[in-house]
Write a structure and sequence with these properties.
cell membrane; alpha+beta; five-stranded antiparallel sheet; binds adenosine-5'-triphosphate; OB fold (Dihydrolipoamide Acetyltransferase, E2P); Transp-assoc_OB_typ2; ATP binding; Rossmann fold; membrane
């Protein structure tokens, strides 16, 4: 493994609880990892520890086989060869773009000529060739962020850390830039770990995504697995639009199924181990129903009333209410424009059943 975080715990002086508790994760060389989670969950602290700006009280951080932090070892930040791009990426306003990009390059990075060439390569990599003589205020927000990326990559860091790099940009630009940053980092073959609040950004950039909650890493997995096979109830709730409804394991003609207010789900074999079905028959569960698991179907015997709707271009996100008061979310193509208060037919179309025992929090 190229980056290895091994049971790392970090506490700030005088804080009542640790900011990071026993977090382990790995990244292979060239992989892009993303950490998401609510504010205060410990994402930035972990990133700062990898950079060498905080130090764990226990656990180890290894990069390319070298121990950066571990029992009796504490490598200084400037010796780690790790690049950082922060939320407030602060270019130097009085320096031209090429001077900004070349700012971190010293003699150890080659001759003057080689350093000039490196700046040109970085300009080309981030798609800003020709703008080297401009000043930051002459560039758009997105272009400035790409300069910040080029500046961090110029000294050829072993690892790049990005802390909410797009948060000062508007939403549309953020989406576009997230995809572009992924392309640039992949092209440069760089290993990177990014922190964000935004799950669309996380999915757009990450090969692996981790969800942090109250100082712990709840799951570190491919985006698809996070969405379809969330390891904890928190992850299930945090990723995607979804609602938990009551469910119970039942026997349906000898086959175990999950009963829900919208009928039985039969494809539960993958969960039986987790739910200990043999002993749990009849115990209450909460079943996750995501907005894309609930399909609008006029022929369905299950009806639900529309209580809210939000237009999202290609589709509506309807909040629906069943007769017993249970609310659901459904993503419906936007040519099905129904009025609030109207009842529509719905049925389940669930590929991966996700359920947790009711007692789990
Ligand atoms: N310098 C500090 N001194 C004391 N406590 C701190 C310090 N920095 C962060 N904390 C605390 O550590 C915990 C984790 O904070 P951290 O900034 O790592 O979370 P985060 O997930 O990055 O949050 P955000 O998304 O809001 O940036 C929080 O409880 C925070 O209040």
């Amino acid at each position: 493994m190229f980056l290895q975080i091994d049971h790392v715990s970090i506490s700030y002086p005088r804080a009542s609880a640790p900011a990071v508790q026993s977090v382990s994760l790995t990244l292979q060389a060239g992989q892009l990892g993303v950490l998401i989670g609510p504010s205060g969950s410990g994402k930035t602290t972990l990133l700062r520890a990898i950079a060498g700006l905080e130090h764990p009280q226990s656990g180890r951080i290894l990069l390319d086989g070298q121990v950066l932090d571990g029992p009796g070892i504490r490598l200084a930040a400037e010796e780690r060869r790790i690049g950082m791009v922060f939320q407030d990426f602060a270019l130097f306003p009085h320096l031209s773009i090429d001077a900004n990009i070349g700012f971190g390059l010293r003699q150890e990075h080659g001759s003057k000529q080689q350093r000039r060439q490196r700046v040109q390569e970085m300009l080309a990599l981030v798609g800003l060739a020709g703008l080297e003589d401009k000043f930051p205020h002459q560039l758009s927000g997105g272009q400035q962020q790409r300069v910040a990326l080029a500046r961090a990559l110029a000294p050829q860091p072993r690892l790049l850390l990005l802390d909410e790099p797009f948060s000062s940009l508007d939403v549309e630009l953020r989406e576009r830039l997230a995809e572009e940053v992924r392309r640039i980092l992949k092209q440069a073959g760089i290993t990177a770990l990014m922190v964000t609040h935004d799950q669309m950004e996380a999915f757009a950039v990450g090969d692996v995504v981790g969800v942090m909650q109250q100082s712990r890493l709840e799951q570190w997995d491919e985006p698809y697995a996070l969405y379809h096979r969330p390891a904890t109830r928190f992850v299930a709730d945090f990723i995607g639009h979804g609602i938990f409804v009551p469910g119970a394991l039942v026997s349906d003609s000898g086959v175990t199924a999950m009963d829900t207010p919208l009928g039985k789900l039969h494809d539960v074999a993958h969960m039986l181990d987790t739910l200990q079905s043999e002993t749990a028959h009849g115990l209450p569960f909460d079943v996750l129903l995501r907005s894309d698991d609930i399909v609008h179907d006029d022929l369905s015997p299950f009806k639900a009333r529309i209580v809210r709707k939000s237009f999202r271009g290609a589709d509506f996100l309807y909040t629906l209410q069943l007769d017993d008061g249970i609310e659901l979310l459904s993503l419906v193509p936007s040519h099905h424009d129904h009025a609030i208060g109207e009842a529509i037919g719905i049925r389940l179309d669930v590929n991966h059943v996700v359920a947790f025992p009711r007692a789990t929090t």
